Each structure stands twice: as C-alpha cells, then as structure tokens.
Amino acid sequence: MAGNMSYTIVEYFGGDEGHRCGYCKNEKSNFSHGMWSHTMTVQDYQDLIDRGWRRSGKYVYKPTMDKTCCPQYAIRCHALKFQPSKSHKKILKKMNKFISQGELPKEPHEGEPMESVSEEMGTQGLTKMCHSEISCSTSTNFQKEVEVRPTITEFRNQVTDIVPTSSETVRKDPKPIQDERAAATAPKPGAGADANRPPCRKAKELRKERRLQKEQERHNADAVVASLSHAPTQTNQPKPLEDFISESLMNNSAHRLEVRLVRSNPPSPQFKASFEASYQVYKLYQMAIHKDPPDKPSESQFRRFLCDSPLEAEYSVDGPTMGYGSFHQQYWLDGQIVAVGVIDILPTCVSSVYLFYHPDFASLSLGSYSALREIAFTRQLQIQSSKLSYYYLGFYIHSCPKMRYKGQYRPSDLLCPETFVWVPIEQCTPHLDNARYARFNQDPDAGDACVLTDLGRALVLYKRGLMPYAVYSRKRKGCR
C-alpha cells in the first residue's frame, strides 16, 4: 500500500499446472505462479520484482524455480558503474555511423534472442504469459550534453601559456646580458669602475646562472603537466557510455534520431496520437521477426500486453520529473517511428518489459542498442532521484545459451531464489554450469528475511469489502 492510501488489488490464479515453455518448447514443463492485477502501486511492484515476479500487461507471474524446466533468474545491472564492452561499443558506433552517413550496415543481421508475445490460456480463461519481456528491451530520451575533457596535448598547451620558455625569459629581461658584458670590457675613461653599478661578474658565473634558471623552468613546467595529467578529468579513464551516445546527435548528420518518452498508463495525449503508428511497427515486427501470421498480431493483443498496465501514475518530491509508472519510449527516425521500448519506472530502478522495431532496421541490433540507451537513461534519472540506480533486464536463463547475453551488461546481480538477496553474477554462473536450479546465497543459515510470518494480517477483498485474511477464513468456513 502506498503512502497516498492507494491499494494493490490482485486475483491469484495458482501455479499447479504446467504450460508450454518458450525456451525448450516442452508443452507441459513450465510452471509459474500467476495473478491478475487490477491495480498496483509502484512500490508494491518494486517489492514483487525484487522477489522474482514480472508483469506482462496486467498479468503478473513468477516462475516456480525449483520445478520449472528453464529457471528464470531476475537480473539487474548497476547502471552507475556500467562500462560498455567492446561488443557494446561496436553496436553504438554502428548506429552512430548510420545516423551520420545514412547507410544501413551491409553485414547480415545475426538476429537477437528475443521472445515473442504469446497467448497461452490457463484454466481460469485468462491469458498466461510464459515470457513477456525480450532481449534487453529499452530505449531512452536521454540527450544529455557531454562534458568536454581536454587531451594531454591540450594540457601541455596550457602549460606553455602559463610557464614561458627560457628564450622568452631572456627576451623580456630589461637588462640584457650583452650590455653587462660590454660594460665590463669598456669601463668609463679616466674614472675607473663606476661605484654606482654592481660589480662585474665573470662570464662563467653568468652561464652557470642561466643554466640553473633553465633547469628550474623545466622543473616547474614538468610539475604543472604532472599535476594536470593526474586531474579527475584525465583522458586515460574509460570513455563513458554517454560519450558514445552523443556522437549520433550531430546537427549535420544524414538522419535525425529522436527518442520520446510517453506515458502509456493512463495514456497521455502523445501516446494516443501515436498509437496506430506504434501498432503498425509492432505488427511488422511480429510477422517478420517471429513469423506470426498476419491475423495474429492484433490490435487487441498489442493493447493488452504492451499498453495496459496495473501501475497507476505516481509522483514524489524526490522522484523523477515524469513520475513513476509505465511508459513507451519511441524511436523517431526522420519523423517516423522505427522502434518502441516498453518500460516501467519504479522507485529504485528502470525495468525493461519489451522492445519491438521495424524489421527494415534489424541490422542495427536495436535490442542491444536500446538496452545501452536505457542504462544511460537510468543514470540520468538517478541525478533526479538518488535511489533510482538499477536497470532490470527481466530474466536471465542460463540453461538457454541464447538468453545468456543479459549477463554481458556488467556489473550485474542475479536474485537468489531462496533468500531473495542479490548476488554478483560471477559468483552465480559456476553453480548454474552444474545445475539448472541453484541457490546463490552460500550462507546455509540464511533465509527469507522478508517472509510473511502472520498471513492473517494480509488484506483480502471479498464481496467488495476489505478484510484481514483471518476474518476472510472464518467467513469462508462459516459458509460451508
């Protein structure tokens, strides 16, 4: 329940029956708990995904980890610590080249491991989703200006302006050495040495003094260069993600890419105005990428799974300016929608839900590109809300090699299915190499710290009335 007295209202469906797995294709081996959410607060959903739940539209589900054929482990990336890998940089540069020069990559598209939206009817007659989110879906409206960092050469140019060379020092001397030497060899006739002038100095002493002066100047210059090169803005630090993204924002580029954030629930005017264009891209995507027949990617399916959400809009004084809830992030290329990312903005994270794109742009690796943009977007939101610092990629399926790519967004954690603590993925994968299901928390005495010990206090909605579960149980027994 949120601070504004909003409630989360769900109908639990159970999880005893197996259904088709989208990974190993077994017809009855995928087990999960499910519930239909009529409405849900963002904090309640944050708590649920931190216990292994995910949503597809208004349907919220959690794999039965020790029973299902392909265990799906919740995964999150530390957005603030993320550094793009070589493959990530290649994808970013490929997009930047397309935006600046206007040509799509000619190499064949290898395909991204994305799962399609599928309908599987359960015993309750409502849709059960085996897996609704896909490959690192996301995009962002992130267009932050990048801090300019001087190079080492620029540092040295600054030093040159600060510390003059020895030849400049000599030229600026009001009393040249040559004049002193002339005075020593030609004293004033008939009067001997001038008592008002300093005593004559030997040339050897003057040369020694100049040499010492030059050495001191070089020492000072090296000291300034060393201090500047060790400044926090030194260029030997890894290039941040934002620098790669900003390279595609040049004014003289062949194409113009814009990413717009529109609220999908409740639908904003911008969302309503672009609904048909988004749906057409989704339809083309499902038919080309997932081989759906033309009549399957219907408008009702699109609305049910990718537009409807139980999360109402919520705002907080210490939260992001756009508030919390469900959004579509639309990629506009030269005025046309070419991709849409479905995301949830929650109190501590940005959660990826789904991504679809126009198949003509498949060679741009938009699934991975949008994930990188989403991480950058999360970093931007963290400036507004300090606790919003994680990027949730959905589920990591180690038993399905094509779905291991999510582990490449590091540093990242997997959720222990028994104690519900986050464990670095490097510590988890050795266990998953030996068994599909694994407990990651190696403390044998650790348990679920947030387990509900008093079920009787849980609130139940019964015949339009709100009551504790203990009261509901007594009423149910009285009816028998």
Describe the protein in words.
The chain is α+β, with helices and mostly antiparallel strands and 480 residues long. The protein has a domain at 9-107 and 240-449. It is 31% helix and 19% strand. It has an eight-stranded mixed β-sheet with strand order 8-9-10-11-12-5-13-14, with helices on both faces. Strands 1-2-4-3 form a four-stranded antiparallel β-sheet, with helices on one face. A hairpin with a 5-residue loop joins strand 6 and strand 7 (127-128). Helix 3 (152-162) packs across helix 6. The longest helix is centred in the middle third of the chain and has 27 residues, at 203-229. The protein is globular, with a radius of gyration of 33 Å. Belongs to the R-transferase family.
